[in-house]
Amino acid sequence: MFELLFKYPPAFFSRGKFVLLSRWPVWVLVLLIVIAAAGLFWNVRQRHGLLSNMRAGIIWFAETALIALLLFMMWHPALSLARLRPQQNVVAVVVDDSRSMGISEDGKTRLAAAETLLNDQLIPDLKKRFQVRLYSFGRDASRIDQTQGLVAGDNATRIGDSLKHIADEAGTMPLGAIVMLTDGGDNTGGVDRDTISQLRQLHVPVHTIGFGPDHFAKDIEIVDVATPARALPQSRLTARVAIRQHGYSGAKVKLVVRENDHPISEQVIELKSDADQSETVLFNAGVKGAHTFQIGVEPVQGEENVQNNFMVRLVNVAEKKMRVLYIEGEPRWEYKWIRRAILDYDDPAIELSGMVRTTQNKTYYEVARPGELANGFPTKPEELFGYDGLIIGSVEANYFTPQQQQMIRDFADRRGGGVLFLAGRFALADGGYENTPMAEMMPLHIPSQKTFSRDFADVALTEAGEESPITRLEDARDKNDARWKKMPQVANYAVMGTPKPGAVVLMTVAEQGHHPSPLLTIQNYGRGRVGIFATSGSWRWKMLQDHTDKTHPIFWQQLMRWMVTETPGEVVASTPRQVLSDDTHLPLRVNVRDKNYDPVAGATVQTTIVRPDGGSDTVDLKPDPLESGVYTGNYTAEKPGTYVAETVARQDGKTELGRDTLTFRREDGVAENFGAAQNRDLLEKLSSDTGGSYYTAAGAKRLPDEVSVSEAGITAHDNLDLWDMPILFLLVIGIRGGEWLLRRKWGVV
């Protein structure tokens, strides 16, 4: 219908430039329209007879519009656009033959539907005007002679890599356009900017034809799973699972964590209406070693694709003692029972050392190593930075020198350690912390007045606290909530200020009839973590419950593990993806610091990677030119399986600065299980960014005409007449006929 009225396809108008081909300038056209409008206005004003002013105005407007339209047509309007010269340009036709194209819909696979469209319609029409070069693509594009016999068997779809491959060939041929037939199920997260930029520079439009539905009628898909990359032995971890489903609103399903195909944790969740939702599930990290977990939703009857219900994640469990220093400004029950929570229950991951000021000039030390804290609280960064976590109890701020206060701040910010502040008579607002460097790192604003109260108060979990592994005493959420509701009151608390941006309040405290105040609040700060536990009365959780109850030790062990688990060493190796799904490329990044945790430039950094077959490879990492102390490299994982990478950094090639171990895994045959529905948004954006168009299979018949409009390849600039468009003649007849009908109705014909 559009071409019937406007003579040309929509793409011609969107890509062409409007011009007037008359030798007369545009100002003459405008002047004539103004003169005609004035003359008609005078004529209607003199002869409007019994017509009201409004009706006379309508007649004048219709006559003026008619004259303006006729003058416009006389000025010879046209579209100026570049079109590919017939038979002098190449059009690349690219067919997706990845596994997702083998999904059947309406009795025919997507690939079969693409072949039918190409062979019966597109290729014959394109060959009449252009040279056609055929490609198939999955991981990469490759030349083919014909589309018959293609098998949807490639385990990955990399649209960006395939387009780059074809764009690189543009230098050897007059490439006019790319036509891509695909479901858009890209496994790399989209087309990178460099590829889009390259296509734009070449002026090569990418026209996409999408296959498959936007979503399955009945399907539950795991979109992503976030788990910690590292953990301490027997730690309780949280997996945050992003779920997308269609057709199962309100259904109850099992969210499961498996290891070696054995369930180790599960919980029942209710699926929301057709939309994405996020759920959490807790599980135990287990013993030392690299653990592979399968996390997802148990398949439900009627699902169209059950291969996308689980994702694999790796967690490296390191068996090492994390050092925590606890300083108290006065003898308190809290100090005693926190120590007993670690020592009496033999937490293998925490090494706790303490110092308590018993009188103004006397300090009692309980240290884990001989000679530790011989000179009191550390005065040098390398001494304090030897710890992984720091607990500051009822100690006034001026107990620490200005240099020590800055060190405590740097302990979290630069060293990456965990710091926990407790309430007390000499702590927080009551200890003068408000205007110190330590106040900046705290997750809550510190009140200007003293707020510590020796009153009993109830504690309650917030919504975030219900999800956090710190406050999870029971794996089942409802049991955990019930247990906290029965918790004995704390013996004291400090009223705190409002949370800072990025802070997370896990627990609140309040006396009966009072407004709740944050009790346990955490936040990330720099490379580390900072928390405030605004009480020194949690010891009652042990003393007022049965002697076999482990609430208090479980809470404190989990809180300390949160403090120290992610505390980095001098050398930290990382990769953006620990699981390579049908991919071989592994980027490596290593952060190297000295004993003061300042970045080290000029180090020698080498990674030794043990392959699944027992062999090993070595990667020499190079300094990042943009970030001091960061070294990067790349590795190709040739075979599926689990890899172990050990990185060593040395100064001057001799002195070892530190080492770190990283595990990653390559899996084959899984990438195409996810995102199997048509990714129409990606295809539309790709076409829009490159000057092409998106088509459905049913609407692709107009593609050969629109492909010819391109600035790539060998082109000719044409001026296409617009003055004879049927829509203009219809407007002329419509305006004149409408005016006559109005005159007849109003009796002035």
How does CATH name the architecture of the largest domain? 3-Layer(aba) Sandwich
Question: Could you name the CATH topology of the largest domain?
Answer: Rossmann fold
Q: How many separate structural domains?
A: 5
* CATH first level of the largest domain: Alpha Beta
- The number of helical runs is 18
Residue windows where pLDDT falls under 50 for at least 5 positions: none
Lateral arrangement of strands in the main beta sheet: 20-19-18-21-22-28-27-26-24
- Helix-and-strand structural type: alpha/beta
Average pLDDT score: 91
Beta-strand percentage range: 25-35%
The description of the largest β-sheet is: 9 strands, mixed
How would you name the CATH homologous superfamily of the largest domain? Class I glutamine amidotransferase (GATase) domain
Give the number of DSSP strands.
38
Q: Tell me the span between the first and last alpha carbons.
A: 35 Å
Global outline:
elongated
Helical residues, percent: 25-40%
Structural Rg = 36 Å
Please outline the helices and strands.
Layout: H1 2-6, H2 10-15, E1 17-20, H3 26-47, H4 53-74, E2 77-84, E3 90-96, E4 104-105, E5 108-109, H5 110-127, E6 131-137, E7 141-144, H6 159-168, E8 175-182, H7 193-202, E9 206-210, E10 219-226, E11 230-231, E12 236-246, E13 252-259, E14 262-270, E15 276-284, E16 289-297, E17 310-317, E18 322-328, H8 333-343, E19 350-359, E20 362-366, H9 381-384, E21 389-392, H10 402-413, E22 418-422, H11 437-441, E23 452-453, E24 458-461, H12 463-467, H13 477-485, E25 493-494, E26 504-510, E27 517-525, E28 528-533, H14 540-543, H15 551-564, E29 571-574, E30 579-581, E31 585-592, E32 604-610, E33 616-623, E34 630-636, E35 641-651, E36 655-667, H16 680-690, E37 694-696, H17 703-707, E38 715-721, H18 726-746
Parallel strand pairs: 3-6, 3-8, 8-9, 9-37, 11-17, 18-19, 18-21, 21-22, 22-28, 30-36
Antiparallel strand pairs: 1-2, 2-38, 4-5, 6-7, 10-12, 12-15, 13-14, 13-16, 16-17, 19-20, 23-25, 24-26, 26-27, 27-28, 29-31, 31-34, 32-33, 32-35, 33-34, 35-36
Helix pairs in contact: 3-4, 4-18, 6-7, 8-15
